[in-house]
């Protein structure tokens, strides 16, 4: 059974937004029996995590907070179990009916598993498989966002049968690419992911993620140049 713990991560010591406060208050109201744990620089040994995982270390060096939290959420869930929530996820009702699962996710789009809400028992085999991907496979793969990585693993292993995957209406009914429609929230909706970007990463620093798997230095340089040119044209187009 999934323990009654909610985990969230707050790195960088910045101020929380009004939306974050609204969402965290919704957890306290709707999940009153749950322990709520904030993970930050004071209770995480970031040096130890960086020494154990090169991808995390490279993201930390570049202050790519969002990608650091991707790894930390998996680590915390694997060790402690519970429910991970992004700070822009508003809870509408208790997760109690779902806690009998060993692990559950929700779709964020037709193609992708959402990761603003992840729930599992401690030591879950799916979460372990994702952690293993971050250890080695990530350097051989073009994937670097956590939704694409988890989707890839569930689509390419026999572990998919061990988890529950719910439709978008359960945990991420709101589509940020479309005008908001209040009808997206149904009787099945447990929470809403509002997709607020708490970290705005420097695109130049983030480009290393898109070329990390390329071994040929000439090809890698060409891809970086192409990316830089594309960014310039996008900026000119916005003027």
UniProtKB/TrEMBL annotation:
* SUPFAM superfamilies on file: Nucleotide-diphospho-sugar transferases
Whether Transferase counts among this entry's keywords is: yes
- State if Cell division is listed as a keyword: no
> Mind telling me which Gene3D superfamilies this protein's record contains?
3.90.550.20
InterPro entries attached to this UniProt entry: Glycosyltransferase_domain, GlycoTrfase_DXD_sugar-bd_CS, Nucleotide-diphossugar_trans
GO biological process: what's one of them?
mannosyl-inositol phosphorylceramide biosynthetic process
Q: Which UniProt keywords are present, listed alphabetically?
A: Transferase
Q: Where are the transmembrane segments?
A: none
Please provide, alphabetically and separated by semicolons, the GO molecular function terms listed in this UniProt record. Answer: mannosyltransferase activity
Kindly list the GO CC terms recorded for this protein: membrane
Protein name from the UniProt record: Glycosyltransferase
**Protein source organism:** Candidatus Mediterraneibacter faecavium
């Amino acid at each position: 059974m999934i323990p009654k713990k909610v985990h969230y991560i707050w790195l960088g010591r910045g101020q929380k937004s009004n939306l974050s406060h609204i969402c965290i208050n919704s957890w306290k109201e709707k999940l009153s029996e749950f322990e709520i744990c904030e993970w930050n620089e004071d209770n995480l040994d970031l040096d130890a995590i960086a020494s154990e995982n090169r991808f995390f270390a490279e993201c930390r060096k570049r202050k790519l907070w969002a990608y650091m939290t991707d790894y930390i959420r998996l680590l915390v869930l694997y060790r402690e179990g519970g429910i991970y929530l992004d700070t822009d996820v508003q809870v509408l009702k208790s997760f109690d009916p779902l806690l009998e699962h060993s692990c559950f996710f929700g779709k964020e789009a037709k193609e992708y598993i959402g990761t603003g809400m992840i729930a599992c028992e401690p030591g879950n085999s799916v979460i372990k498989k994702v952690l293993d991907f971050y250890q080695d496979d990530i350097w051989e793969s073009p994937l670097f966002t956590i939704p694409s990585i988890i989707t890839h693993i569930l689509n390419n292993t026999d572990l998919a049968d061990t988890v529950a995957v719910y439709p978008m209406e359960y945990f991420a009914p709101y589509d940020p690419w479309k005008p908001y429609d209040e009808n997206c929230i149904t009787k099945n909706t447990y929470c809403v992911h509002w997709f607020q970007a708490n970290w705005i990463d420097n695109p130049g620093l983030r480009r290393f993620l898109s070329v990390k798997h390329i071994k040929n230095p000439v090809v890698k340089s060409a891809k970086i140049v192409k990316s830089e040119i594309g960014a310039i044209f996008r900026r000119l187009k916005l003027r």
